[in-house]
Amino acid sequence: MLLKGLILAGGYATRLRPLSCTKPKLLFPLVGTPLIERMIEWLGRGNVKEVILAVNHLSDKLRMEVGSKKSGSGVFLSVEETPLGTGGPLRLADKLLAGENPVVVVNGDVAADIDLESLTRTHEMSGADASMTVFSVRDTRPFGLVTLDSDDRIVGFEEKSPLNRGPGWINAGVYILNQNVIEMIPKGRAVSLEREIFPVLAKRGKLKGWKHSGFWYDIGKVQDYVTANMELLARPGYLPGRSGGLAPISSIEQPIYLGDGCLVGKDSKIGPRAILSAGVKVKRGAKIHDSIVFEESVLGENSLVEGSVIGEATTIGKNAVVGSGSIIAGEVTVPDGMTLKPGSIVLN
Prior knowledge:
Elements: E1 3-9, E2 29-30, E3 33-34, H1 35-45, E4 48-55, H2 59-67, E5 75-79, H3 88-92, H4 94-97, E6 103-107, E7 110-112, H5 116-126, E8 130-137, E9 144-148, E10 154-159, E11 168-177, H6 179-184, H7 193-203, E12 207-212, E13 216-218, H8 222-233, E14 245-246, E15 251-252, E16 256-258, E17 263-264, E18 269-270, E19 274-276, E20 281-282, E21 287-289, E22 291-293, E23 298-299, E24 304-306, E25 309-310, E26 315-316, E27 321-322, E28 327-328, E29 333-334, E30 339-340, E31 345-346
Parallel strand pairs: 1-4, 1-6, 4-5, 8-12, 14-17, 15-18, 16-19, 17-20, 18-21, 19-22, 20-23, 21-24, 22-25, 23-26, 24-27, 25-28, 26-29, 27-30, 28-31
Antiparallel strand pairs: 2-3, 6-11, 7-13, 8-11, 9-10, 9-11
C-alpha cells in the first residue's frame, strides 16, 4: 500500500537557537546528513512515496535544499503564514493528502527507526481511526504520558506533567491517521492533535497505541540534539562511512564522522566523538573532540574545539579556543587567538 506522509516542521525551533536562527530544523545534520534526507529515506522504506513538508520558519532555505536533491522528488511544501500547531497543517494540506489510504504524520524533530510497514499493518487490522507510536522512557516529565489498556488502545493522556511518575509510555510523535480524522480538524486556526483531536478519539475507543522498541530521539532541544548525534555515531551499522580526506600524519580517535569533502590538515587531532559535516576544513594543528560541526565551517590552525556545536559556514580563527558546552551560530567568525569560556553562546 502506497502512502502519503506529512512532516510537521512549522514552528520557529526556538529551543534550538542560536543554531536555528539561520538554518531550519529539518536541515540540521544528524551525524553529518541533513535530517530531512534521513527522514525521507526512512519514510520511503515504509512505502511513503509522497511527502508534504508543513513549514514556516526559513521555508525558502528548505525549498532550495529539497529542490537540489534527487531525494526531493515526490516532496512538496505546504507553507503556513503562521504556525498552526500539530493539527492545523493537516487541514491546510488536506487536498495534497486526500486519498483512500491513511496518512503518515511525523513530528519534524524526531529521529527513530520505527518500522512504518509494521505500524501501518497493525493500524489497518485494528479498526482504529488513528494509531500513535508510543515509546517507553525512564522519566516521562518532558513528554506526553500515554495510558494504554490491555489491548494497547489509548485511554488517557497527561501532557508534560511536572511530577516524576517514573518509567512510562510517551507519545513518540509518529501517527497513522485515517482520512476522517483529518476531516475532524477545524479549518483556519492552530489546532493541537494532542489536546483537541486525540482525546476525542480515545473516548470513542478509536485511538490505538503501537509500541516501538528501537531507537527514538526527540531532537527539539540542543542538548537532546547533541545526545542523539553522539549515540547514533557510536551505534553499529548506522553510519554510511567516511569520505573525507585526512592528512597522513593526522591523529584520529574513533568514533568520528567525516562528511563529503572534509579536509583535515597535518598535525591535527580529530576525536573521539567528533562529527564533521560536508565541506568542513580542519587546518594544521587543530584539535576537536566531543563536538558537532555543521557544513562548510573552518577550524583554524592550532585551534581547539571541545564539547561544542559549531553552526554552518562558521570560522574558528587561528589559535582560538572554544570551551566545552559552547554553541556558535551559523555564519560567525571567531577571531584569531580568542578564547570562549565554557558554555558560551555566540549569536549571528
